[in-house]
Amino acid sequence: EKHRSIVREDELLVIQAKISKDDYSGGFRINVDRVLDLGQARQEFGKALRIRMSEAHNGADGQNLKNVLSPFLGSLPVILDIQDACGTCSLQLGDAWRVRADPALVSEIAQRLKPCSVEVEY
Predict the structure, then answer these.
(1) Structure-model confidence comparison of residues 54 and 119, the more confident one
(2) Is 117 exposed, middle or buried (0-12, 13-18, 19+ CB in 10 A)?
């Protein structure tokens, strides 16, 4: 009952619980301490949001990236890996670019900034 508001059908949850042997029934007893939805778990346990972009992206994509990230401002650092024919450059964006690791953000980046990949690092 305590976590009813975030439990939904077909949604991934992270559950912190204590499992102990139940001598009465012979099975196990599970005492749930915390229930987190995917966004909460990513925010709590994530270290960074990493976006890998190829040389196919040009300067216009910087504005596109800003438009995608701005509704999701939060505390998770954003790291861009930009790859061209000579190699890869990793750039951690400043504090003003920190985001919430919301599943909608990850999906939005994957859809709007093709070709690229995006992942939350733990």
Answers:
(1) 119
(2) middle
Distance between CA atoms of 121 and 107, rounded to whole angstroms? 15
Q: What is the pLDDT of residues 44-86, one digit of tens each?
A: 888 999 998 876 655 545 677 888 899 999 999 999 998 888 8
Backbone phi, psi, residue 34, to 5°: -145, 150
pTM of the model: 0.70
Residue among 32, 7, 10, 8 nearest 19 (CA) = 32
Question: Where is 122: in which H helix or E strand?
Answer: none
Is-contact 83 53, C-beta < 8 A? Answer: yes
Residue 25, C-beta contacts closer than 8 angstroms, at least 6 positions apart: none
State the angle between helix axes of 103-112 and 38-45 in degrees (0 to 180), rounded to the nearest 10. Answer: 90
